[in-house]
Fold this sequence. Notes:
Blueprint: H1 2-22, H2 25-31, H3 35-54, H4 62-87, H5 89-95, H6 98-103, H7 109-142, H8 152-197, H9 204-252, H10 256-285, H11 287-291, H12 300-314, E1 321-322, E2 326-327, H13 330-352
Antiparallel strand pairs: 1-2
Helix pairs in contact: 1-2, 3-4, 3-8, 4-9, 7-8, 7-10, 8-9, 8-10, 9-10, 9-12, 9-13
Amino acid sequence: MLKESLNKMNTSNENELNRASKAGIITWALLTDRKFVILIITFGLALDGSTCFKDLYFVPDTYQTTRLVLVSIRQWTCAFLLVLFYVRRKKYSDLIIHFERKTKIELSPALVDYLNKNRFIFQIFTLTHCCACILVVSVAWYNFSFALLPYFPYIFIGLATIGILCFLVFLRFFIEACLYIHTCFMRVEHQVNILNNSTNALSIDDIRKVRRLYCIAVETTEKFNCLFMPIIALYFVINIVSSHFSLVYSIVDPSYVTLLISFIELANFIIVTYHTIYINHLSTRIYQSVYSLTYKTDSLFTNKEVNLFLTRIERADVGFTFLDLFVITPTCVTSLATISLTIALATPSLVKC
C-alpha cells in the first residue's frame, strides 16, 4: 500500500511538472522553486519601469509623458506582485492542482487541445505585440539625436524589448490561471453531458456528484480570486486608464504612433478581459444542460437536487472580482466599454469648445 501511494504521488508530481513546463516561465519557476528566474523577470520589469521614468526628460508632449508614467507604474507593480507571488508560491502550487486533487478528474485530450490552442493564440499575440512595441519605440526615438551617446537609442530599444518581454511573461502567467479555471468548469460540463447522454435512470447520487464538482470548481475560482485580487484590481485600473487615454488621443491627434499605441493597449485589454469574463460565462453555460436533466427522472427528490443545482448556477456570481466589490462579467465589461467609447468620441468636440 505504501509503495502504491508513493507511486501515485510521484505520478502526480510528474504530471504537475509536465503541465508547469507548458504553462509559461513564471508558472514553471514557481512550481519548481527557480528563484533565479523570478529574480531575472522581476529585475527586467523594475529596470523597464525605471527607464520609463528616466525617459520623461526626453519626451516633449503631454501624451507621451502620461503614457510613460502609466507604463512605469504598471511595470513596477508587476515586479512587486511577482515577488509577492514567489513568497506565496506554496499556496499557488496547491491551487494549481486543487481541482484534480479533490475530484480525481484529469485533463481530457479535448481540454489539452483547448489549452494548446489558446497558448498558440497567445504566442501569436506575443509576437505581434513585440513587433508593434519595438516599431513604436523606434519611431518615437527616430527624431532624437544624441551627440554624446550616438548608440543610446539602440541601447534604449534593447532595454524596452526586455521590459516588453517580461511584461508579456507576466501576462501569460495570469492567463494560464484563467485557463486552468476554464478547464475546471469544462470538466463539470462534460460530466453533466455524460448524464444527459446516458440511458440509465438518473439518481440523486448522480446529481450530488456533479453538484460537488461544480462547488469544487467555484471554490477553486474563489481561491484564485483571493490570490490574484491585487493583480486584477491594479491591472484593470491601469489598463483601462491607459487604453482610454490612448484611444482619446488617437481621435484628438491621430498619427501613426498614437494609432499603433492605441491598438497595442486595446489588444492587451481585450485578451486579458476575454479570459477573465469567460470564467463567468462557463459557470453559467451549463444551465440549459442541467435543466435538461429534469426530463430524465420522475423522482421528486432527484428533481429537488436538480433545482438546487439550477438555483446555484443562476446566481451568476462566479468569477474574478474587482476588490470583491463586483464580479467581472460580460455585461459589466460591455457597459464599461460603451461608456469609454462615448467619452472618447465626445472628446474632440469638448476640446474644440
